[in-house]
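Field guide to reading this record: the first block holds the primary sequence, the second block holds the structure written as discrete tokens, and the final block holds curator observations. Each block starts with its own label. This record concerns Cell division protein FtsN, catalogued under organism Idiomarina fontislapidosi.

BLOCK 1 — SEQUENCE
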Amino acid sequence: MDYANRKPKPKKKSGKSTSQRGKSTRGAAPKQTKQVPWVAVVIVIALIAAFVYGLITIKGDGDNSALAEQENAQAVDDLPVKPQEKWQYIEELESKQVEVDVPERELGPPKLMQCGSFRKQSDAERLRAEIAMAGLESQVRGTEGKNGLWYRVILGPYETKRAAERDRHKLQRAKIYGCAIWNWNLD
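BLOCK 2 — STRUCTURE
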């Protein structure tokens, strides 16, 4: 049944009509007294009595527990002595040395990161200022290509690609995207 959308039941009008003396014309219903469920009361009392009796019998006497402790102490004394273990590998490892061959990392050519290439120098300087606000230093270099003069905004040189990636992530956090890492020489 959908209780949220149900309509409230209409209230019933009281059917009592009063006479001249203020008495009801309908017969009054006799009062109903509730009967006490004696069977349930007896069962509850019996359960409580059984619970109390159980607690008293579980508690037990103090003499029996002392006797049990003495028996446990004798049983512990009857056990053989636990042998001491001597580990040999600890002594063997103290005299050993571990040798590890670590190959040297080969460094490739220096890395440069280009963040933009513009026809106007003012656009390149604007990007350079945004990079400076991110906390990095960049350069604007003019290069002559087939299509004329271009102004590139570059960062670097970096010895490793990891260092260049670190700066690129810093620029991405400053919302400067599109930077690419290349193996370039400054020549």
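BLOCK 3 — OBSERVATIONS
The chain has a mean pLDDT of 82.
Strands lie at 111-118, 139-145, 148-158, 180-183.
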